[in-house]
Write a structure and sequence with these properties.
The chain is an all-beta fold. The protein is built from no helices and eleven strands. 0% of the residues lie in helices and 55% in strands.
């Protein structure tokens, strides 16, 4: 089974930056898809950014130009670099991974953007 360990969340002021990390561990090889999702209070979980094993990326319109997703296949780790953060970005951020025809979720990391 795949275990996902998320880190990097915290409190940041508007305009600041954070870098989230999600490391996958277990008996795994070549994860197909890795993505970041978020869920704000009272809202449904939504895709922030995703990246395929080949390096193709997609982003939510609300974060384009401010957020970059990347991955290190050797470490089975996906990153989310977030810049110019806004209060609207406040949410629990979840790592989601597709592997062996299954979807695995991390437990989430809190990102709070506030002055």
């Amino acid at each position: 089974q795949v275990r996902l360990a998320e880190s990097g969340g915290g409190l940041v002021q508007p305009g600041g930056s954070l870098r989230l990390s999600c490391a996958a561990s277990g008996s795994i090889f070549n994860i197909d898809y890795m993505g970041w999702y978020r869920q704000a209070p009272g809202k449904e979980r939504e895709l922030v950014a995703g990246i395929t094993s080949g390096g193709n990326t997609n982003y939510a319109d609300s974060v384009k130009g401010r957020i970059t997703i990347s991955r290190d296949n050797a470490k089975n780790t996906v990153y989310l670099q977030m810049n110019s953060l806004k209060p609207e970005d406040t949410a629990v951020y979840y790592c989601g991974v597709n592997y062996n025809a299954r979807r695995y979720w991390g437990q989430g990391t809190q990102v709070t953007v506030s002055s």
